[in-house]
Amino acid sequence: MAEVLAVKNVDTIKLISHLLEIRHSKQMSDIWNIGINLALRISDLLSIKFNDISEDRLIIQESKTGKIASIQLNPKALEIIHRIRQEHPSHIYLFQSYRNKQAINRIPRPLTRRAVGKAFASIGEEVKLDLGTHSMRKTRGYHLYQSTKDIARVMQMLRHSSERVTLRYIGVTQDDIDKDFKELVL
What we know:
This protein is mainly α. The chain has helices at 10-23, 26-38, 42-46, 75-87, 101-104, 113-127, 135-148, 151-158, 163-170, 174-183, and strands at 53-54, 57-61, 68-72. It has one domain (10-175): Intergrase catalytic core (hpI Integrase, Chain A).
């Protein structure tokens, strides 16, 4: 699997959302926008059930680590969640598969990681970025780091245990760190 990147330009983040909606579906755009705001791994993002959400907080057990993630939902995430709930009141999953005919008579399931990955990769080709399902999480981490320069805070948000892993994960390179040293003169 190819390494995917954080999206560093805010306008590109918005463009990706728009392209996902017009080229694929509103649901794919919603996945992108919620994913950017929650910084969850794709497996955890797709497994969110409406009963995991209580008022303005999401509480789930991460599948990879087994850790409990308690995430305060921001206004944008809440707006999307409320709209999806209104449009699909019988759904169990936030991103439930419902478009194909096989889904109608089966036990409800979320969209697959593969379907989301294919949609993201096709938009990535269009915008000339290595885009994948981890891009949302990496993008959130990158932008938090850029606004705070607090790697410990980013590590907590991503629930990582190593600064080195977090810096590599969000795409902060030695060149970026060198540039910060050059530009910050006291």
